Amino acid sequence: MHLKEGDKAPDFSALNQDEKTVSLSDYKGKKLILYFYPKDNTPGCTTQACNLRDNYKTMIQQGYEILGVSPDSPKKHRNFIEKFDLPFDLLADTERETLNAYGVWGLKKFMGREYDGVHRTTFVINGKGIIDEIITKVKTKEHAEQILNS
Question: What would the pLDDT profile of 63-76 be if each residue is shown by its tens digit?
């Protein structure tokens, strides 16, 4: 599945760091930043999460909610949130259902090696569940600015 701006965002339900189910429908009427990242506690993913954390108040003032999604477990997410004081939920997609629905799981290349993994991608979804923007070239150090200035 290849999503594009203007498409209806695929529905999802996944466990957050507290093992509570979170769904797209929970954000009806709100602007949602749904960001997909490879793995907790890795340099790029930590930089990206901390950038969103540092700009969280501004993003909330602009009407955005934030959700991160990776294949990590709820327990790993809880540790990541506590270690870096993240103010938003992280969803555990251990079965890769949401990752596949959004088309962000697939073949990657790194240092000449090929493997399956998460393509770092952010979807900005409006209150009606429509994808307003897809950011595929995520700048981990200035991701909030990418979203706010788009």
Answer: 999 999 999 999 99
Q: SS3 letters for 40-91?
A: CCCHHHHHHHHHHHHCHHHHHHCCEEEEEEECCCHHHHHHHHHHHCCCCEEE
Superfamily of domain 13-22+29-148: Glutaredoxin (3.40.30.10)
Question: Known catalytic residue: 50?
Answer: no
Which SS3 state, helix, strand or coil, does residue 126 take?
A: coil
Between CA 49 and CA 35 the distance in angstroms is 10
**Annotated catalytic residue within 22, 33, 45, 138:** 45
- Is the pTM of the predicted complex or chain greater than 0.85? yes
CA distances to 44, 80, 146 from 84, rounded to whole Å, are: 14, 6, 21
Residue 69 near residue 101 (C-beta atoms within 8 A):
no
Going by pLDDT thresholds of 50, 70 and 90, the confidence category of residue 111 is confident
Q: What are the structural domain ranges in the chain? A: 13-22+29-148
